Structures are given as C-alpha cells and as structure tokens.
User: Which sequence fits this backbone?
C-alpha cells in the first residue's frame, strides 16, 4: 500500500470509528430487540424486448411464441425469487429510441430475437448502447441477423449472445444478469488495513468499477462491540452451531469456542447495522480469531474473508450472487506428481453446497501456524468438481477447473486440506498469476475455491460485467 493510499484509508477509518463510537447506545437497544434482520437486496429488474416480426412467414417465429416466452419468464421469476421482469416491448412496432429511454429504470436487458436480417443489428445497437448488462437469445430459424451480433462483443459491449434452441440457458444467464445489480447494492466492512492488488486499495475505484461500497472500520470498534455481547447469548450460539455439531473437538477449550461465537454475534450485529453483505479483516488472527465467524457467515450466504483480502472478498461476493455458493480462501501448493493443487487454510464454510445444503463433517482445532485460537478442519467431498478463481485488479478473473481427489491432515499445512486434480499442474506452477498480479505474497498466493464447475458461466459473466477471464494453467 502506498503512503497516500494508507493515509486515505486511515482517515476514512478514523471517521468511520468516530461514527461507530457514537452509536454504542443505539447498539445496546438493538441488541435487546428480538431477531434483528439481515439486510435484503432489492430484486434485479430485467427489461424484456422482443425483436423482429411474428407470424408464419419464412424465418419468422410464430406469434404464439411471445406468449410462451412471457410464461417462461413469469415462471422463472417465481422460481428465482430475486429478479423482476419488466417491459415486453415488440420492436417493431415500438421505436428503439423510446424503448431505450425506458431502460433507465432497469438493471439489465434481455432481448429475444424473433426474426430479421442484417438490418437488425444497427437497430438493436441503440438498446445495447444504453450500457446495461445485456443478453440476446436467438433460436435457430430466427433470421440471418445473428451474423452481425458478435460485433457487439468485439466492440466491448457488455452482452452475452445465446444462439441456441435450449431455453434452459436462459435460466443460467438470468442468474448472471442479477449479479451487477446486487454488487451495486452491496456494502463491505473492511476491518483494519485493506490488502490486495493496487486497484482494490482505492475504495472509490471499487465503487466505480463494481458498485460495491467499502466501509473502513477500526478494529477497536469491533472489539468494543464484542465486549458488549451477552456472554450467555454467546454460549448459546456456540453450543447450537459449533459444540453440538462438531465431529470432534481437539485442542481448543470450551471458553475459547464461546469467545469465537461471541465475536460472530458482534460481527453479525455490526453488519446488520451497516447493511453490509460482506466483511474482511486484517485482524482476523488476533484474539479472538475470526475463523468461526467467517465460516458461519459464508454458511449463511454472506461473505466473511480473512486477512483483509479485498480481491478475494469481491470474488466471493460475485460467486455468492451468481451461484449461491460460498468460497474457501486457500494458500495452495503444487504437486506435479499428482497433477494437482493442494488447497489449505484454517477457516472454511461448512455448507460448501450453499446455504440450503447440508453441513460437511468438521472438527474444531487450533490454528496450525500459531498453535492457538480456534480453527476448523472441514472434511470436503472427494469427487466434487470445483472452480478455483480470483478477481484481481478489478478487471481480470483468474480461473481454473478441478476435481477433489483427496483430503489430508498434514501437520505442515493449515487445518482444512484437500487436493484437486487440475488440467496442467506444471504449467500452472510456471505461470502462476498469469503475469497480472504484482503485489505482496498473500495477494499473489491466495485463490478462492468454490464447489461446482463455473468456468463457462464466469466467462459469460465477464462479458456482462466487463472483466477479462484468464484460465490459469489452461490451453494457450
């Protein structure tokens, strides 16, 4: 971090600390209330446009097809529960200039190409040029205009093209279209000094590029709130979510686990008050440690990220919104003998399939490197496909697919450990970071692992959000 950047964050942190300190009385009142609620995001508004003629002419979709699409989108809205389809104009007869004006109230644009020829692209460009994340669905026998649509991508428009007969691809893309809208609504608590690539150390740039508001917060404020939490509430929290659910407890004492649960309750209260969806802390290895706090937040569909790693926090937010899965921040090492990466860290979600999934078996341990605190040894699922990723510099997503082939308990590594087979471990070793990360050891090292193969949809999301996608260790 440069001196000027550090000064900016220290000033912001001091200001944030003063504001938070003024709210302690209000906090006590809030703690006395039953069940304060987590912040909710407004549904993403997706504007529908039907483009082209209808009827029964050559390369013209039937008139009844619009009715089928309307029903499909209505059912999809009900199924997802967090999107709202608006609009539904047919162009022509509707004029593109008037439709473009309506797009100001939308978060994204869905164009269904019904028919047409080469002249469609210039007409529809007026809608694409509004700048919303845009998807265009064009089935076979919808005219010859499809030849001109790829130019939009070449020109850097934020558009995903779907030349397919498979309507189910709409489900995936609609799920992606909501991500930019949710990012713009998101707030991230940054406890202590932020860490990461140069771009993410500039809170204004993070807001400009992704829409996320960074809230610098002094660790002393969080610790004061931690001390205000009722010890009996912390004990109940620890018993309910950790002590009664663990497969085994090895090193930590009961009071240490209760202290970790107390920190979770403090972080939860702070996030609710600040309407935050994510938190990262450069003080997470202090006393008490943040491992259990971040684990439960990630189980619940929020984001808790260690070591002040803003790049990884943003990556986890993107995946949470797109795929409803938590991320596991990892310090990987390479093993070419197995053509694999070995991932490990001392905090992990226990619901790696997402908030509605079952918890993975876990043991409560201490932290490997310090031999203290409370950490987790989570038993990940062998055979599970995964995606390893990290958004860096706010403009590039590093990504690689893999499959879990084993778990481990090596005393030289952090507590949660698993091995993933990758396409080319040696190439990944030689080209780690793809030449786009120029920062400290943690920033170059950290990646985030997610359950599921998300490489193809992340490429589409890159088109919608304007970031490059580079597959680490992939084909040239």
Assistant:
């Amino acid at each position: 971090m440069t001196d000027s950047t550090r000064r900016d964050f220290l000033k912001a942190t001091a200001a944030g600390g003063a504001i938070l300190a003024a709210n302690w009385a209000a906090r006590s009142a809030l703690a006395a209330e039953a069940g304060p609620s987590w912040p909710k995001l407004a549904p993403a508004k997706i504007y529908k446009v039907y483009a082209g003629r209808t009827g029964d002419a050559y390369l013209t979709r039937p008139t009844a097809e619009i009715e089928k699409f309307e029903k499909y989108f209505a059912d999809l809205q009900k199924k997802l529960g967090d999107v709202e389809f608006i609009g539904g104009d047919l162009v022509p007869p509707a004029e593109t200039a008037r439709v473009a004006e309506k797009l100001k109230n939308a978060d994204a644009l869905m164009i269904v190409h019904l028919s047409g020829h080469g002249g469609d692209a210039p007409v529809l460009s007026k809608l694409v040029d509004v700048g919303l994340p845009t998807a265009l669905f064009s089935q076979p026998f919808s005219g010859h205009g499809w030849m001109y649509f790829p130019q939009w991508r070449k020109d850097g428009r934020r558009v995903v093209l779907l030349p397919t007969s498979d309507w189910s691809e709409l489900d995936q893309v609609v799920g992606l279209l909501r991500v930019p809208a949710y990012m713009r609504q998101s707030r991230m608590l940054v406890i202590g000094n932020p860490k990461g690539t140069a771009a993410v150390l500039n809170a204004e740039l993070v807001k400009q590029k992704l829409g996320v508001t960074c809230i610098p917060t002094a660790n002393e404020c969080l610790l004061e709130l931690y001390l205000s939490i009722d010890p009996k509430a912390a004990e109940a929290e620890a018993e309910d979510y950790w002590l009664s659910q663990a497969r085994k407890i090895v090193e930590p004492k009961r009071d240490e686990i209760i202290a970790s649960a107390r920190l979770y309750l403090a972080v939860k209260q702070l996030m609710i008050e600040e309407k935050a969806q994510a938190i990262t802390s450069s003080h997470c290895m202090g006393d008490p440690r943040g491992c259990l706090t971040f684990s439960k937040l990630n189980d619940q569909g929020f984001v808790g990220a260690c070591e002040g790693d803003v790049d990884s926090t943003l990556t986890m937010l993107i995946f949470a919104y797109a795929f409803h899965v938590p991320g596991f921040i990892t310090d990987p090492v390479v093993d070419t003998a197995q053509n694999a990466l070995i991932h490990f860290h001392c905090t992990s979600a226990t619901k790696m399939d997402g908030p509605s999934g079952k918890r993975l078996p876990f043991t409560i341990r201490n932290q490997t490197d310090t031999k203290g605190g409370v950490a987790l040894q989570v038993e990940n699922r062998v055979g599970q496909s995964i995606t390893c990723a990290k958004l860096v510099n706010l403009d590039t997503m590093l990504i690689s697919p893999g499959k879990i082939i084993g778990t481990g308990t090596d005393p030289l590594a952090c507590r949660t450990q698993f091995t993933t087979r990758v396409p080319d471990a040696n190439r990944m070793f030689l080209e780690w970071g793809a030449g786009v990360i120029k920062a400290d050891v943690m920033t170059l090292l950290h990646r985030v692992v997610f359950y599921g193969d998300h490489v193809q949809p992340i490429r589409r999301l890159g088109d919608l959000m304007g970031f490059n996608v580079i597959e680490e260790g992939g084909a040239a």
User: Anything to note?
Assistant: The domain at 186-471 is CATH 3.40.275.10 (L-fucose Isomerase; Chain A, domain 2). The chain has 16 helices and 20 strands. Residues 249 and 364 are 5 Å apart (CA to CA). The mean pLDDT is 90.
